[in-house]
């Protein structure tokens, strides 16, 4: 899948071949495992736990990583698929963001529906800067823990929600 800049509607995600990723080696470092779990998308705060700001900047300037939002990186220079775009949306929105609606169902394996826009649930009291184009925010005053899946990534609501 690729992200292309369009006219006013922001980046578009295009379906790809669905490449399978290999598990990291048994002796892989924590950053490699984090990248694997989050489909090669990490926040600046996460990257800063393992790398200096200079090392992060070097990866971006060398074209090995791409900064796709203010503090979110794709740790490769290839196209962005729908799963990665869901991670970009969640990480850009902050620690209390969860996927909701059709986006949550797609992250859980539902197929056959368009992947855009990405629906996020945020607490009504949270305020976020500009989110990536193609992200639709829904504010909620009530999101009990039993409505959020504790397994699977990215964080998302249960199908019944």
Structural class: alpha+beta
How is the largest sheet built, in terms of strand order?
3-5-4
In whole angstroms, the N-to-C terminal distance is 29 Å
> In sequence order, what are the helices and strands, one letter per element?
EEHEHHEEHEHEE
- Tell me the number of helical segments per DSSP (H or I, 4 or more residues long): 5
Taken as a percent bin, the fraction of beta residues is 15-25%
- Tell me, briefly, the overall form: globular
Summarize the biggest pleated sheet.
3 strands, antiparallel
- Fraction of helical residues: 25-40%
Radius of gyration over all CA atoms, rounded: 16 Å
Provide the residue-averaged pLDDT.
Answer: 83
Count of distinct strands: 8
Short description:
The chain has about 160 residues and is of the alpha+beta class. It contains five helices and eight strands, in the order E-E-H-E-H-H-E-E-H-E-H-E-E. Helix content is about 25%, strand content about 20%.
Describe this structure in words.
This protein has 161 residues and is of the alpha+beta class. 25% of the residues lie in helices and 19% in strands. The protein is built from 5 helices and 8 strands; from the N terminus they run ββαβααββαβαββ. It has helices at residues 30-37, 44-48, 53-61, 82-93, 101-107, and strands at 3-5, 11-13, 41-43, 66-69, 72-74, 98-99, 118-123, 135-140. It is globular, with a radius of gyration of 16 Å. The two termini are 29 Å apart.
């Amino acid at each position: 899948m690729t992200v292309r800049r369009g006219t006013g509607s922001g980046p578009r995600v295009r379906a790809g071949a669905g490449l399978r990723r290999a598990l990291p080696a048994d002796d892989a470092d924590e950053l490699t495992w984090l990248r694997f779990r989050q489909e090669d998308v990490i926040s600046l705060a996460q990257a800063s736990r393992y790398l200096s700001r200079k090392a992060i900047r070097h990866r971006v300037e060398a074209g090995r990583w791409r900064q796709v939002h203010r503090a979110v990186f794709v740790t490769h220079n290839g196209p962005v698929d729908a799963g990665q775009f869901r991670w970009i949306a969640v990480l850009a929105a902050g620690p209390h963001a969860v996927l909701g609606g059709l986006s949550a169902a797609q992250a859980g394996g539902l197929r056959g529906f368009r992947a855009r826009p990405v629906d996020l649930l945020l607490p009504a009291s949270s305020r976020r800067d500009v989110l990536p184009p193609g992200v639709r925010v829904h504010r909620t005053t009530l999101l009990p823990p039993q409505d959020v899946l504790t397994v699977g990534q990215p964080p998302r609501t249960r199908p019944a929600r």
